[in-house]
Amino acid sequence: MTNNKSRQSADEHTPLINGESAGSAQAGNHILRPQRSGVITFFFDDTHTPGNDSNSIVVRSAAYTWHVTKVTLLSSYVNWLLVMVPIGIAAGALGWGSTAVFTINFFAIIPLAAVLSFATEEIAMKLGQTMGGLLNATFGNAVELIVSIVALKDGQIEIVQASMLGSILSNLLLVMGMCFLFGGLVHRGRNGAGTEQSFSAAVAQTTCSLMTLSSASLVIPATLYAVLAQNGSDDKSSSILILSRGTAIILLLLYTMYLVFQLRTHSNLFDNEAQALAEEEQEAKMGPVAAGMVLVVVTILVAICADYLVGSIDDIVEKSNISKAFIGLILIPIVGNAAEHVTAVVVALKDKMDLAMGVAIGSSIQIALGVTPFLVIIGWIIGQPMSLHFETFETVAFAVSVLVVTYTVQDGKSNYLEGAMLLGLYLIIAVAFYATPSDAFDGSITRLLGKSS
Asked: Which GO cellular component terms are attached (predicted)?
């Protein structure tokens, strides 16, 4: 009875040690690996922390708190950049130069995004495949959503639109291109007898069809605006907002149906991806309550850093003559997707292309059908004219990218040449937006409202 009680107590307070109690974990350490020094175990062992099995609740609570902190800090190689978080907050609060505030908070959000992803995955492990998949889908692009909401509150609609489009393009072209390129080079076969990597063509076609639909949701408002402008209509703003908000509701309903399709009714089509995920999956290193607390703290920190980052953009644009479109399209997506990009490339090198495709295209669908329409609704609620009418150049770049990706993945195979093609298109788009004058796109929404008033 005493042993059972002690084991139960240990399990309750150490749910992160591979599902074992502290005592069994320690026993396993003695058997399976050499004894580590106390200092190394205390600071660098993410499977055990001395004090977790203490009879004192104060010691046990302190040890568990440190263990959660340690596991979080050791969860990713980019977490050394977390030192930028307090510096970035101090830079914003003390009114340092806009370049310093933007740069420091830019690098501060990268590790916060990685920690956010880690905490989400830890919770998902405890919820099962269906609820875990839904949680990952919901929080998969949380950083982009937080940054965009902050920018939307400040009226930076061009930044919001560009960052949404940039997130989609970086996943479709940059991430997928790197997966195809590096994976294809590693698994190219012998000279004269080259091989290709393969993935589920059915899944690729389904997701590309959804991306084509999202492309149409941007082309239609742009076309309507062009027609109204040609006819000299004075009510372009109202028409575009009505169309955008109605389209946003439809896209959110379709995204919900896609989640049900993927996670419930037709999950068999995604079996290969699920198997790859299962192979990568490890035991949870912290309990759901601890992971939830990490999620809350990191979300608050991301919101603070994002507020300072967005607040410095106008001054950056004025001083550097870089357009807001380039900042939103190229720079900001790097912040939220860095850790995710590395994950996709690593699994592609391991020839697990279904998982790599799931990360790249899946994240694009979340942005196109979930986050962007949601931001339109948020703008509607808070009185900001966020719409699906993007600049014509942005819309064309998106539509062409979706077309190229669809042709590339339709056979369910990939090679390094196709990866180089996707990367080449991404670089062309990046150079085009970099070469764009700072005032070419900025203020388009203001001009639209001004002409219609």
From this structure: endomembrane system; fungal-type vacuole membrane
- Residue-wise pLDDT for 4-17, tens only, equals 444 444 443 444 43
Bridge partners of residue 154, in order along the sequence: none
Q: Name the β-bridge partners of 189.
A: 194
Give the three-class secondary structure for 249. helix
Summarised one tens digit per residue, pLDDT across range 196-229 is: 888 887 788 888 889 899 999 999 998 888 888 8
Beta bridge partners of 449: none
Task: Work out the angle at residue 311's Cα, subtended by the Cα atoms of residues 309 and 312, and round it to the nearest 5 degrees.
Answer: 70
Strands 413-414 and 193-194: unpaired
Domains, the chain, with CATH or none: 78-442 (1.20.1420.30)
For 144-187, what is each residue's pLDDT tens digit? 888 888 889 888 888 888 888 988 898 889 989 999 999 999 88
Task: Give CA–CA dist 7/21, Å, rounded.
Answer: 6
In contact, 110 and 78? CB cutoff 8 Å: yes
- pTM: predicted TM-score of the whole model, two decimal places: 0.75
First to last CA, the chain: 78
Largest pairwise CA distance in the chain = 84
State the DSSP string of 287-303: -HHHHHHHHHHHHHHHH
Q: Report the alpha-carbon distance of residue 285 to residue 291 in Å, rounded.
A: 9
- E-only strand ranges, 89-228: 189-190, 193-194, 197-198
Spatial contact of 279 and 61, defined as CB atoms under 8 Å apart: no
- The residue whose two tokens read 């389904």 is 206
Residues 346 and 186 sit within 8 Å (Cβ to Cβ)? no
Using alpha carbons, select from 166, 160, 145 the residue that is nearest to residue 397: 166
Return the percent helix, strand and coil in the chain, to nearest 5. 80, 0, 20
User: Which residues have CB under 8 Å from 259's CB, separation 6+?
Assistant: 133, 134, 137
